[in-house]
What does this fold into?
Amino acid sequence: MVQKLAGDIAKATFTVDSSSRYFSYAAMILPSNDAFIANGNPLAIEIFDEEGNFTGADFTVLGSQVLDAGTEVNDEQQTTTAFFGQTTPDTGTPENGVVTLHPGFIPGGPILSTPAFAQGDFTVDGYQIARIKVEKVPESSTTGGLLAIGGLLWLGSRWRQSLNRFA
It folds into this structure.
């Protein structure tokens, strides 16, 4: 798991072909116990047209699109909230709910009161959770290999930095 802080950029290189015309995504919002973003319609983001031509994608996911999985009560207790102090998964109070829009973190609660997450109120109008851009890159195997290695090194260093911040 790699935590991304506000303003961080992550890149990954994948080989795709037109046999799968659509792009789907899902990611957990941290710190939370069951907040996430995902496209609910698997046919919503077309990256290849009907003739197999790559068209790409470029879109922003807003805080108003954050979903609540309904698996655990959003109590923001350190022992039950991922990346906020939870040491064992699935320790939250079961909610037995369904997927709904997430109400946001508790105003003045433990998460938003923590300096590292003070800017994490994704319920603010226009709050950008992510910008996702799918674009073509040069097909050189050397370039792809260098991007992959460089990306892994960069993500590893960011991961170590984030762990040190909260240790």
In short: The first helix runs from residue 141 to 166. Residues 11 and 151 are 7 Å apart (CA to CA).
